[in-house]
From TrEMBL:
This is 7,8-dihydroneopterin aldolase. Its EC number is 4.1.2.25. It is an enzyme of class 4 (lyase). One of its GO terms (molecular function) is dihydroneopterin aldolase activity.
Length: 122
């Protein structure tokens, strides 16, 4: 059985990108997370100690995303996945979507970004 904890719309200002102005000024990124785990124990006990704290997930994600300036979103998202899997042993897999709504593209668009999934057991 796999249950899901999710965080959507986490807005973080960071300095990722290929262009010089992206690393100098930075921009807003939006992150969505899906954390796959078994929630049967916390559903039974109703204890925070038996699950994963949303606040800790947000803190871990923010630190990993901002810790290094990456040229590619793939690198930044990979750092978040690694941090979550190493910090939260209850999480079996994580799906991360990183939106870059102000990417320097000469076009009119709503959103661009990447989505990656990582697990403990490939």
């Amino acid at each position: 059985m796999t249950d899901t904890i999710f965080v959507t719309g986490l807005s973080i200002h960071a300095r990722h990108g290929v262009m010089d102005h992206e690393t100098e000024v930075g921009q807003r990124f939006v992150i969505d997370l899906e954390l796959y785990t078994d929630l049967s124990e916390p559903a039974r006990t109703d204890r925070l100690a038996d699950t994963v704290s949303y606040a800790e997930v947000v803190s871990t994600t923010t630190a990993a995303f901002k810790n290094t300036n990456y040229k590619l979103l793939e690198g930044a998202a990979g750092a978040v996945a690694d941090a979550i899997l190493s910090h939260f042993p209850r999480i079996r897999a994580v799906k991360i979507t990183v939106h870059k709504p102000h990417a320097p593209i000469a076009a009119i668009f709503d959103d661009v970004g990447i989505m990656l999934t990582r697990s403990r057991h490939p």
